Amino acid sequence: MITVRDLTVRFEAKTVFDHASFDLPEEGVVMLYGVSGKGKTTLLRVLAGLLRPDSGTVSGLSGRTVSFAFQEPRLLDWRTAEDNIALVSSREKAISLLETLGLSEERNALAKTLSGGQKQRVSLARAFAYSDNVVLLDEPFTGLDEENRFKAAALIRSAKLAIVVSHDEDDAALLDATKKIML
Questions:
Q1: Helices in the chain by DSSP H: which ranges?
Q2: Looking at the domain assignment, is residue 132 inside a domain?
Q3: Domain containing 168 — which CATH number?
């Protein structure tokens, strides 16, 4: 069990979390949804260790490899799609993930030449290449058409634990979410 206890996060005068406590399962898909500004991305950053809370604790992640796909793909534009993924894993794994996400033909394309949806899928593939133990995904379906949403959803469901941020509660059904948390 991943346990968040008494979490408080403030940004200057704005309090995003005020002594929040909840539990997350060790496996499955957890969906964090709600309107903008409620702390979904902030929670992912705390879970990833990228943001230190003002107070509170997170336990249950030590010893687990955590990967993160941000809202923006954050690719190296001067590298190919395959190279962007191979930075964190093997070329074989990069090629396999690109194929899974329907990007075989784009594998040698420079990231700067890819469409927004293609960049999003490369970013998702890179997160899974690094680790599918705990995968934190911030709006992973941005820019994806229906066919590619289904491919991405199948990959997300394959993670040991995926914590997914979305504004769309319907994504929980697509991902067969084991737990939904409205923030």
A1: 40-48, 81-86, 91-100, 116-130, 146-157, 171-175
A2: yes
A3: 3.40.50.300
